[in-house]
Structure formats: structure tokens, C-alpha cells
Amino acid sequence: MPKPHFTRLLDLPTLSGLSGLPHVVMACVETNTGFLAQGEDLLQPQEIERADRFRVPLARQTFVMGRYLARMGLAALTGCRATEIQFNLSEKGKPVLATSPMDFSISHSGRWVAVAFHSAPIGCDIELGPNLKTKHFADVARTVFAPDEMAALYNAPAGSTDQRDRMLSIWRRKEAVLKATGLGFSGLPQSFSVVTESGAFCDRINLCGATFALAEVAKNGRPPIALAWITASCETLKPEQATPR
Hints:
By secondary structure, the chain is an alpha+beta fold. It has two domains: about 5-120, CATH 3.90.470.20; about 135-240, no CATH class. It contains six helices and ten strands, in the order ββαααβββββαααβββ. It has helices at about 35-40, 45-55, 55-80, 135-145, 145-155, 160-180; strands at about 5, 25-30, 85-90, 95, 105-110, 110-120, 120-125, 205, 210-215, 225-230. The strands form three sheets. A four-stranded mixed sheet has the order 1-2-6-5, with helices on one face. A hairpin with a 7-residue loop joins strand 9 (about 210-215) and strand 10.
């Protein structure tokens, strides 16, 4: 399957044309402080209120950077000015563009922030899992993983780096799908699997009456990003519509 397009942060203002595949941009807040200042200037009043509630500086920085990347990318794709990009919040709290069907998804983990853009519903997820301990694998997995995903997890040596990496890869893909549905974890995460019975990762799954493409990409030593996007039209998604793949 063709991979989504990576866009450099400096090239974001010239982003154009979604040629059937998503675009994704990624930034580290520690090395892009100048962009953070620009992002602060673009925040809407309700976003300023939310940013001011963060007590941990890194949490505020990743929030501001996510909004900045989203605004700059959407401005380039829609032909609007970044100051004209206004967000509404969905029922699940996901920011959505008020004046265009263009979709985007924001994710952050640690000091990294990623935003994916597409002409159809999309979800993206970074998950570095810095605090994930081996003893927590089973407890976390049992709450959200489907049987095939549990089998793939425990086919790796217990407590190994491979098992940890596999768990994070499953988690990233799963959360990307749930974000793309717009339902988040209310979308019955155990009702679908992002791995096959043989343990290989799926590149497509059917869920809620739609077909989702899945990919995980990494570039130039940056953390991996999982993406999921709808490739076939669907009706409004509801939790009770979720069905196994």
C-alpha cells in the first residue's frame, strides 16, 4: 500500500493537494520554540482558556503546537489565512474545521506532536509509552485488545523489547482507527482487530460500515506514527454500529 506523505514543518505553508493519500507533519516542541510563539498568537479565546489550565509546561506546549500545525496545514490546503481557521469541537471533543469538510487529526506523546490531514475522516496516533512497564502489559491489553491482538502480543518473548514495541504498534493503530471513526474509545475497541489471525498487521479493516486503510510510518529517526483513514463512504458512525472485522 502507498505510504502517506510526510511534510516538513518549514514546507507546511506551501502544502497543497491531497492526492488520495494523507499528509502528515511532525514537530518536536523543544526544537521549534519559535513556532510555539506563532501558535500562541493564533489561538482562539476558548483555546487560550484551555491552554491556561495546563499546569505542566510540556502539556501546554504540545497543545499549542498541535493547534499551530493544524491551522497552518489547513490554511494551505483550503486557501484561507491561518487567522481565519476556526475550530469547533465534536461531541467527543475532537477539534473539527468549522467551514470545510477537510479532516485532520492531532496526536502528541512526550515532546512530539503530529497532525495528519485528509479529504476523508482520518485519525493519527503517536505513542512512545515512556512509562509503560512490562507488568502492565496484560492489564492494559485486556481492556482494549481483541483476541488476535492479544495472541500477537504474547507470541513475542515475555517482557522483551519486541513485546513492548509490538504492544505500542497495536495500540497506535487501534487508537488511530478509533479517532478516524470520531468515536474514540466509546467505539468498542475490542470489536475489531488491527492484526490478522497470523499476527501480521492489517493494511485495511472494515468497521462501522466503512473501509479503513491503516499505515504506520516513521522518517529520519522520528517516532512512528500510525494513521487510519476512510477509503469508502459511510454514514454517521454510532457506537452500536461497530462490528468485528
